[in-house]
Amino acid sequence: xxxxxxxxxxxxxxxxxxxxxxxxxxxxxxxxxxxxxxxxxxxxxxxxxxxxxxxxxxxxxxxxxxxxxxxxx
Length: 73
Fold this sequence. Notes:
By secondary structure, the chain is an alpha+beta fold. Helix content is about 20%, strand content about 45%.
């Protein structure tokens, strides 16, 4: 039982360490093709993907953000 407790104590910090994520992002501008008026109609869309490996497990997530055209008043 003492050996198991020592092994658990030694491996616990490694198991509880948060993985370090590496991220990449890309922003594209999309034109609203159905509008020909005087105001801007472009959408800026940004996608960021992140991934990390911890042992044999890979963690990943993505964020998508967009900003639409401001409406004229």
